Amino acid sequence: MKIGIFTDSYKPYTSGVVTSITTFKKELEKLGHQLFIFAPNYSNYVETEEGVYRYYSVPAPTNPDFTLAIPVFPGMKYLLRKLDLDIIHVHSPFTMGRVGLHYARRLNLPIVFTYHTLYDQYIHYLPVAQELAREMTVKFSNNFCRQVDHLIVPSSEVSNILSSYDIPTPISVIPTGVPVQLFKAVSRRENILRERYDIPAENKILLNVGRLTKEKNLEFLLDAFARVHRQKPQTTLVITAQGPLESALKQQVAELGLSLERDVIFTGAVPFETLIQVYYSADLFIFSSMTETQGLVLVEAMAAGLPVVAIKAYGVLDMVDHGINGLLTACDQEEFTRAVLRMLNDDKVYQFFRHNALLKAEEISSQNMTLELEKVYQQLINKNVHRRSRVYDWLSRIAP
Predict the structure, then answer these.
(1) Contact 303, 333 (CB under 8 A)
(2) Residue 326: CATH number of its domain
(3) Domain match, 210 and 256 both
(4) Does 394 have pLDDT greater than 50?
(5) pLDDT grade, residue 392 (50/70/90)?
(6) CA 105 to CA 88: how far, in whole Å?
(7) What 8-state DSSP symbol labels residue 109?
(8) Which residue has the higher pLDDT, 68 or 132?
(9) What pTM did the predictor assign?
(10) Strand (E) positions, the chain?
(11) If pLDDT is split at 50, 70 and 90, which confidence band does 127 have?
(12) In the predicted model, is pLDDT for residue 388 greater than 70?
């Protein structure tokens, strides 16, 4: 297959969407398929990957790390005809998604849309008219869903939400999955966090991975960790990510009376190969986001044998089985703190959750999920070929 991917974000930007695209791309290429990426460009980034076509872009006003594509690409129609795509897969209902939809219809190609994000949950980035914007965003994204041939969603919760809007488009629940083979290749004996930071040898390391943004609910996480730390001082929280709230979160750490050198450590963003070592260096994964549509980092943590304590939220329920590979709580400081301390204080309980976490990661491996995506592609392509052949037959009968 020749697959065209249209996305509003791609490398070097880091996000769950980018991780999803790159993970599926690697696995699909292993199966012999060709992928072509159409994405925004980023200043000072030198492209090293073949098959990537960049649209001129400008920095987003609310997040300078994110760029907004200007949907003009001279010669795109001729380029796509030369590439001879079999299917188009878009990862946003906005700029690049609309571009992908336009060319799918123009070239009579099937189109798939992965609904990565509950877009109305991000309206807080707008300074005014948030309720109006939320209503408009829901209508806009739902309208887009009705125009594509198939929807991919990362969790059953998102599928249920879209079904409640009476969207007739077929839906498949296919999480991104985790490249478990990469995790198996890393030795747990190397503790990169203790090597790089001043973490006492006796301390348990609690880890959080995710962008430092409002929707990740990290203020809650820091308050909860402060409670844990008061009851169990031999603990360190490591936050691996970057984002606009970094300064404010560090200020909160100071106000809580915690040290940024030993108690709470911000590592910034790290390459995925390093991130795997970070997971293996931790003892427990804690997660406070309430707006996840998948929570891929939860399964990445499990692939390294980390049990999870998380807030029960969209996207989390499909990834974490409460009482089996992790503990899910309400957004309540006391309940969340109790769950963390239960994991840390009872080794028998911890080992039970650790074993099941590894099993869950195997179940949602990137290889298995890619095979499911490949089936969707093939069904749509077969259906499209059949539809084209019927059109050609009809034209041949009416032609003089």
Answers:
(1) no
(2) 3.40.50.2000
(3) yes
(4) no
(5) very low
(6) 10
(7) -
(8) 68
(9) 0.76
(10) 2-6, 34-40, 52-55, 57-60, 63-69, 87-90, 111-114, 150-153, 171-173, 204-209, 235-240, 264-266, 284-287, 308-311, 326-329
(11) very low
(12) no
Are 144 and 229 found together in one domain? no
One domain for residues 167 and 289: no
Two tokens, residue 266 = 């911000």
How many domains is the chain built from? Answer: 2
Whether residues 205 and 266 share a domain: the answer is: yes
Contacts of 260 (CB under 8 A, 6+ apart): 250, 253, 254, 266
Q: Specify whether 26 is located in the same domain as 152.
A: yes
**Statement to judge: residues 240 and 302 lie in one domain:** yes
Looking at residue 215, the DSSP 8-state letter turns out to be G
- Torsion, Cα of 153, 155, 157, 159 (10° steps): 30
Contact 280, 190 (CB under 8 A): yes
pLDDT in the model for residue 197: 95
Strands (E) located in 241-341: 264-266, 284-287, 308-311, 326-329
Neighbouring C-alpha atoms within 13 Å toward the C-beta of 327: 20
Residue 80 and residue 225 in one domain: no
- Full residue range of the structural domain in which residue 142 is found: 2-177+366-398
Partners of 85 in the β-ladder: none
What pLDDT was estimated at residue 391? 42
Residue-wise pLDDT tens digits, 279-305? 999 999 999 998 776 788 999 999 999
Q: Do 226 and 290 belong to one domain?
A: yes
Helix, strand, coil: what percent of the chain each, to 5? 50, 20, 35
Q: Which residues have CB under 8 Å from 382's CB, separation 6+?
A: none
Q: Taking the CB of residue 165, how many other CB atoms lie within 10 A of it?
A: 12
Tell me how far apart the alpha carbons of residues 312 and 55 are, in angstroms, rounded to a whole number: 38
